[in-house]
Amino acid sequence: MAFNLVSLIAFGAVGLGVLLHIIGLATPQWVTKTQFVLELGENVDISQGLWQVCVNGKCNAIPDRVKLDWYKACDAMAILGMLAGMFSALMVGIVFVMSLMNRNSANTTKTTKTASVLSFLAAVASGRVLKNLSKELIFNVPRQRSNPEPPGPRVEFLAHDKVRPRAPWP
Predict the structure, then answer these.
(1) What does the pLDDT read at residue 91?
(2) Is the pLDDT of residue 103 over 80?
(3) Could you identify which of 48, 128, 131, 137 might form a hypothetical disulfide with 53, taking C-beta atoms 3.0 to 4.6 angstroms apart as the criterion?
(4) Distance (Å, rounded) from C-alpha 141 to C-alpha 3?
């Protein structure tokens, strides 16, 4: 009975973790800040997630053509982390069902080890995403660009209808 209780707690914790991971991927509030924009003469609330940027509550999708390589890698690692977490939840669920059926065997041990490894990989992938995003978006640590600047003026999207030119790349 003790093993069933531990399995139930593990299944609930992993399931909750996967649910929160999915919700976290969908939200555009990974990074939020309020900034004074001189041209507008007012404070602007900016929030950004992996796929959307919101300015004063108006959200726009971030097109793939403007994403840098490190940002695309963050997208991929976040999705891989979520998939690994979902597979881990499946494995923990299998262990729970096997424990209810009193089938404690070598297969249960292998399944438990697989779920542990996948949970660790999901945590590493999620941590890597947060590290990259926090460096670039919060602390504005410059990164080396792997792709050249596209031709034409560089613009910054402020809202649906407001675009302002920015300084060219150094």
Answers:
(1) 75
(2) no
(3) 48
(4) 48
From 7-16, 94-103, 161-170, the region with the lowest mean pLDDT:
161-170
pLDDT, greater one: 34 or 129: 34
* pTM, 2 dp: 0.57
For residues 61, 161, 68, 85, the Cα torsion angle rounded to the nearest 10 degrees is: -20
Both structure tokens of 122: 């999901």
Q: Which whole-number Å values give the CA distances from 36 to 21, 41, 52, 60, 100, in the listed order?
A: 32, 7, 21, 20, 59
What sections of 27-150 are H helices per DSSP? 69-100, 106-133
| In the block, residue with structure tokens 């649910």 | 19
Distance between CA atoms of residues 59 and 105, nearest Å: 51
8: its two tokens: 């139930």
Q: Can you tell me the distance from the alpha carbon of 96 to that of 8, in angstroms, rounded to the nearest whole number?
A: 7
- Mean per-residue pLDDT, 115-140: 65
Q: What is the pLDDT of residue 42?
A: 85
Neighbours of 77 (CB within 10 A): 18
SS (H, E, C) 118-164: HHHHHHHHHHHHHHHHHHHHHCCCCCCCCCCCCCCCCEEECCCCCEE
